[in-house]
């Protein structure tokens, strides 16, 4: 599906992985390991943004959440369990079909949409997330602008919250994420294109151009003792919040 931000070859690549997306030992195994780390950051960001109780089970109750580049729903389903009315969008129809089937089997009411986020007329979401997606889109400014357009405006309140994660463009990420992880089979070949990675400085500029202020990024690092974990080291991957300025 070719349009403003979707690269057809990227959608096809991830669409081919749809059948294994929920297999923690399959081609998306790394995402299964990454998801709890991202969720920990998202939960803390939610509690901080809306001054919630970190012990509460449904911090998104009464709120609308949008996950863009949702794949087969690895993040959408936990967001729904946190009480959110969740919409997931993906560029690959195969992923959307797999996500719908899995959500139905899990008893979760999640609205899944297939296509380009900028062309679906989505708006007024309290939470907008997009994890490991911006490095795959054709038009990064257009993509960020579409995410911002979907975010609830600040009309006398705090407005919406955005959370993004992406690999950093560093020598370490080229060595470990592209040449290492893909060659060793930890990530499917062709998943990453290092030149498309976005640095925190570049992401901050993209967000500013869309009228958003970026929070302090946290790194997602790996060590033999901790595995994947949040860190001050941004060399491989980072996750960050953004709000309307």
From TrEMBL:
Protein's UniProt keywords contain Transmembrane helix: no
Entry-linked InterPro entries: Fumarate_lyase_CS, SAM-dependent_MTases_sf, UbiG_MeTrfase
Pfam families per record: Methyltransf_23 (PF13489)
GO biological process, one term: methylation
EC numbers: 2.1.1.222, 2.1.1.64
Catalytic reaction equation(s): a 3-demethylubiquinol + S-adenosyl-L-methionine = a ubiquinol + S-adenosyl-L-homocysteine + H(+); a 3-(all-trans-polyprenyl)benzene-1,2-diol + S-adenosyl-L-methionine = a 2-methoxy-6-(all-trans-polyprenyl)phenol + S-adenosyl-L-homocysteine + H(+)
SUPFAM superfamilies noted in UniProt: S-adenosyl-L-methionine-dependent methyltransferases
PROSITE patterns referenced in this protein's UniProt entry, alphabetically: FUMARATE_LYASES
Record flagged with keyword Methyltransferase: yes
Entry keyword set: Methyltransferase, S-adenosyl-L-methionine, Transferase, Ubiquinone biosynthesis
NCBIfam families: UbiG (TIGR01983)
Biological function: O-methyltransferase that catalyzes the 2 O-methylation steps in the ubiquinone biosynthetic pathway.
PANTHER family, sorted: METHYLTRANSFERASE, UBIQUINONE BIOSYNTHESIS O-METHYLTRANSFERASE, MITOCHONDRIAL
Protein name: Ubiquinone biosynthesis O-methyltransferase
Organism in which the protein naturally occurs: Novosphingobium anseongense
UniProt gene name: ubiG
